[in-house]
Amino acid sequence: MKAIKIIEVKSEIGAGTRGASMGIDAIKIAALDFGSHFFKKNKSVKIPVENLLLLEPIHNEFAKRIKGISNVTERIANEVKKAVEAPNTFPIVLEGDHSNAYGTIAGIKMACPDKRLGIIWIDAHADLHSPYTTPSGNMHGMPLAAVIDDDNLENRVNNPDEETVALWEKLKNLGGIKPKIIPSDIVFVGLRDFEAQESYLIKKHGMKVMTVAEFRQKGFERAGFELLNYLDKCDVIHISFDVDSMDPVISRGTGTPAKNGLTEREAGNFISRLLYSKKIVSLEIAEINPTLDKENVMAENAFEILQKAANQITRTV
């Protein structure tokens, strides 16, 4: 039986809206309200963060707070690496904004440098911008561009300064491996809000996209089977779940909600179905923002999904 290791990352410096740092505590409150002992029975470790940078002026216009993000993602990577390398251990990363996903993916690759890594990215957004294409400078829109090491210079609109370029190159090289993933080994689920520059990279690299409509037409069982089959050549697979993949009718407790998303039930059943595969080595949940919510609904939904996933993980031998 696998043991779950929770990695808590309260960093929100990659987002444009404040409050995601409170998402982990909101999940814990939801667990208490449900009478769950989840956070008591599963070991957890807290990653030091640099949210005090939010009080300082922004120096890197096209990669805001990149120095702090580089430091935090390195800490995440080292902790994830240890968890993936540990026998019968499954890391679940609970994080603030989605820029932290770069650290998670880097850590998996550092633990498995010779293995082919696949990513199932459950998100309304593609997060494929670089400092050269970003419309906002917010780095929660950049983790996948970093892991595939494609700056999309064909569609550049920005001219980042030398310091930003140097820090971006350093970030991409975390762990001494780049790119960390073959771009076509990324699968998007629920993608529906993205820019033309990101669309270009999806088409350029032949990345697979499963829309919400396609997901519903197939059902979660068939969708899970199809995506795992698509990633069959991968040795290990990571699931990255951004709660904005869900419809804001359920809850607006996330920084960048997008209409026509998944339901909590669909997301939970789908993730649980994926976890039947022994190739899945990690899960992360991102972008819960209780300051934008009412009655902690998003955190409650996220905890329901987390609990369902955990039940499947601990059943898997």
SSE arrangement:
Elements: E1 3-9, H1 23-33, H2 38-41, E2 43-46, H3 66-85, E3 89-95, H4 101-111, E4 117-122, H5 143-148, H6 162-172, E5 186-189, H7 196-205, E6 208-210, H8 212-218, H9 220-230, E7 236-242, H10 264-274, E8 280-286, H11 297-315
Parallel strand pairs: 1-2, 1-3, 3-8, 4-5, 4-7, 5-6, 7-8
Helix pairs in contact: 1-11, 3-4, 3-6, 8-9, 9-10, 10-11
Which tags fit this structure?
eight-stranded parallel sheet; 317 residues; alpha/beta; Arginase, Chain A; globular
What can you see in these coordinates?
The protein has helices at residues 23-33, 38-41, 66-85, 101-111, 143-148, 162-172, 196-205, 212-218, 220-230, 264-274, 297-315; strands at residues 3-9, 43-46, 89-95, 117-122, 186-189, 208-210, 236-242, 280-286. The protein has 317 residues and is α/β, with parallel strands linked by helices. It has one domain (3-315): Arginase, Chain A (3-Layer(aba) Sandwich). It has an eight-stranded parallel beta sheet with strand order 2-1-3-8-7-4-5-6, sandwiched between helices. It is globular and about 50 Å long.
Q: Structural class, from helix and strand content?
A: alpha/beta
CATH class reads Alpha Beta
Number of helices: 11
Q: Helical proportion?
A: 25-40%
What is the strand arrangement across the widest sheet? 2-1-3-8-7-4-5-6
